[in-house]
Amino acid sequence: MFDDSTEEELREILPYAFRQRDELLRLLSVIYPAHLCRRTPDDKSDADWPALLCIHLPTGNVMYHIHEYHLSLFVHLVCGSNDWDGVGIDVRSKRLDDEVARCMK
After folding, report:
1. Integer CA distances (angstroms), 36 to 66, 98, 99, in order
2. DSSP strand E in 16-105: where?
3. Can you give the C-alpha Rg of the chain in angstroms?
4. Model confidence over 74-83: pLDDT tens digits?
5. What is the pTM of this model?
6. What are the phi and psi torsion angles at 43 (to 5°)?
7. What ranges do the domains of the chain cover?
8. Which of 11, 72, 87, 99 has the fewest other C-beta atoms within 10 Å?
9. How far apart, in whole angstroms, are the C-alpha atoms of residue 45 and residue 38?
10. Strands, DSSP E only, in the chain?
11. For residue 62, how far is the Cα from the chain centroid?
12. Neighbours of 95 (CB within 10 A)
C-alpha cells in the first residue's frame, strides 16, 4: 500500500490517517467511562503520540495511543492513571467484539 513512500512521508500522513479513528474513539469516550493518561516510561511508541486513551468497557479496558494533533478531540476527559493491563491487540479486539455482542442482545 505504501511501498513507494519513505518513512518520513509516512510519519507525516499517519496522524491524518488516524483522524477518523480518533473521532470514533471520541464518541466511545463519551458513551463509556474514559480518561487520558500518559504513556509508561517503557512505551516505545513515537513521542508524537504522547497520550493514551483508556475506555472502560464492561468487557474490559481498551487503550489507544492518541497523536498530539488529535488531543483536542478529548478535552472533555480528565487525565488519570495508566490502567494498561498488559494485553495486546488481540485481547483488545476480543473485548470490543464481546461488547458489541453484549450490546446486540
Report:
1. 9, 23, 21
2. 34-38, 51-57, 60-66
3. 15
4. 999 999 999 8
5. 0.82
6. -70, 120
7. 7-103
8. 72
9. 12
10. 34-38, 51-57, 60-66
11. 8
12. 18
- Give the 3-state secondary structure of residue 49: coil
| Furthest C-alpha separation in the chain | 46
pLDDT at res. 9: 81
- 5/10 Cα distance (integer angstroms): 6
pLDDT in tens, 18-53: 899 999 999 999 999 999 998 776 777 677 788 999
Cβ atoms of 67 and 49 within 8 Å: the answer is yes
Helix (H, G, I), strand (E, B) or coil at 13: helix
DSSP-assigned letter for residue 32: S
Spatial CB neighbours of 1, under 8 Å, sequence gap ≥ 6: none
Question: Nine-digit cell at 29?
Answer: 469516550
